[in-house]
Amino acid sequence: MAQLQSYKYQIRSRDTDFRLQATLTAIYDYVLQTAGSDANQKGFGIHDLNIKNASWVLSRIALETYQTLHEFDEITVQTWISEISRVMTTRNIVVYNSAGECVAAAVTQWAMIDLDNRTPLDLRIFPSYEQYIRSDMESPLAKPTKVPPIVNPQITGTHKVVYSDIDFNHHVNSVRYLQWMFDVLPLDTILEHNSFRTEISYLHESRYGETMQVRYEPREEGQMAAFEIQNEESTAVCRAKIKWQ
Amino acid sequence: MAQLQSYKYQIRSRDTDFRLQATLTAIYDYVLQTAGSDANQKGFGIHDLNIKNASWVLSRIALETYQTLHEFDEITVQTWISEISRVMTTRNIVVYNSAGECVAAAVTQWAMIDLDNRTPLDLRIFPSYEQYIRSDMESPLAKPTKVPPIVNPQITGTHKVVYSDIDFNHHVNSVRYLQWMFDVLPLDTILEHNSFRTEISYLHESRYGETMQVRYEPREEGQMAAFEIQNEESTAVCRAKIKWQ
How far is A163 from chain B (nearest CA, A)? Predict the structure, then answer.
């Protein structure tokens, strides 16, 4: 089997918070960036899919961070496809620091959609895909699970979906939801913990001009938070849980 | 005189809008990133200033974009200091595409503040600074001017300042204000024009938890927009004008 390709980045000022420490959303962004670059390089990136009037959409992610990263830190990211079914594929991503230590990892599950009717496509329209499956490699962390609805939500704010929220799929970018959720956590939670496990289920698309509500519920004696983002019709477009240590 | 150093970047997916075209805020971010990197490299970056309990704050910027950039485009950014007075210094930045064409440029004016009392410091505490002034080089565009207050504001939304808005100076990041302003422009204005001149005056700092109002006024028969961002005390923290062609 071919060696996994390595993708290298440097943590920049814009990736960091006021402590010059990389944010969870910046790590998430490097994870998705690497998934996208790797897919492009192998011939089934969004540019290849767009030719077939299709695109990748993220269905679920589990993302864990183990160590903090700071401005100027160099990271190496590796990714591989571990599974494929007719309508869903799993891609693993591992982030290493310059000492070769694993500082973050993710399991992502993707669907391919038709760009007109937004319904899932059969992944076998890219026959070359299967040759990249590495079923011999272990998942770096537990897979994302279905996130249940929250019970006693606190409504913590609304967001009108604006130009800067919208990505190439013409819907709110996956990372933006995590930013909205992380931004309603108490600041002490963010400052006092370095290790987070985040699970997100993306359920529906959100479009330009919609108004979204971020609902939040503390759980497990303040060691975990559950989130639900709803649109104007009170439909949950995204559910998530963030646990810290 | 030494050659100007070149800083190279590649436009990534996160830098782009739904058309996979680099956003104005992404260009702004590369401009500031380069200013910061160049200052670091010459021994008066924020890490050097922090040792003296000081930091750089951006006072004014004029930023012009001339051509669109897309995902995967390589850019080369050059920067030089053109002026210094006791409390303000001017740094120019020019962005080139891979064909060597100037695609964006900026003139930035900076103050150095004391981190405790937030008042301006005498720039001469870094005596090595003066050796880098390139008074022989022309400004790439007209300097930023004082932006007058707006007359008939439309109130277009409020932003509670959250964790992801705050930078190493413990106040709202300079780029975030531009994002807020650009996000209230009519979408057609963004989509129909490729060339923007933006001038921003930063007047006061905004802190975590404050609620900001973005006020907006179309001018010059829809060829220009004036902005004012106010805090809860109705103090203008930032004024700007964006003109397009």
Answer: 6
Stretch B40-50: mean pLDDT: 92
The tokens for B79 are 């920067």
Give the Cβ contact number of residue B123 at 10 Å: 20
Give CA torsion, residues A161, A11, A108, A211, to 10 deg. Answer: -10
Nearest CA in chain A to B187: A163
Q: Are strands A6-10 and B54-65 parallel, antiparallel or unpaired?
A: unpaired
Is B169 within 8 Å of A18 when comparing Cβ atoms? yes
Mean pLDDT value across residues A178-201: 94
Q: What is the pLDDT of residue B2?
A: 66
Nearest residue of chain A to residue B158 (CA atoms):
A159
Q: Chain B residue closest to A187 (CA)?
A: B163
Interface test with A, best of B46, B115, B163, B170 (most A CBs within 10 A): B163
- The pLDDT, as a whole number, for residue B194 is 87
For residue B82, which of B113, B103, B108 has the smallest C-alpha distance? B108
Are B187 and A208 in contact (CB < 8 Å)? yes
Interface test with B, best of A58, A164, A177, A185 (most B CBs within 10 A): A164
CA distances for B149 relative to B59, B201, B217, B226, angstroms = 16, 11, 10, 8
Q: With contacts defined as CB-CB under 8 Å, which chain A residues touch B17?
A: 163-164, 166-167
| Mean pLDDT for chain A overall | 94
CB A23 to CB B164 under 8 A? Answer: yes
- Is B168 close to A20, i.e. CB distance below 8 A? yes
| Model pLDDT, residue A224 | 93
The H or E element that residue A26 is part of is helix A24-41
Contact A175 B14 (CB under 8 A): yes
- Could you read off the pLDDT of A149-175 as tens digits, one per residue? 998 888 888 899 999 999 999 999 999
Cβ contacts of residue B3 below 8 Å, gap of 6+? none
Q: Does A191 touch chain B (CB under 8 A)?
A: no
pLDDT of residue B1: 64
- Dump pLDDT digits (tens) for B195-237: 999 999 999 999 999 999 999 999 888 899 999 999 999 999 9
pLDDT surpasses 80 at A219: yes
pLDDT at B100 over 80: yes
pTM for the full model?
Answer: 0.94
d(CA B32, CA A10): 16
For residue A173, which of A81, A47, A36, A41 has the smallest C-alpha distance? Answer: A36
Answer yes or no: is the ipTM higher than 0.95: no
Q: Number of A to B CB contacts under 8 A, please give it.
A: 70
Collect all residues of chain B within an 8 Å Cβ-Cβ radius of residue A14: 29, 33, 175
Residues 6+ apart with CB under 8 A from B234: none
The segment with the largest mean pLDDT, out of B46-50, B121-125, B145-149, is B46-50
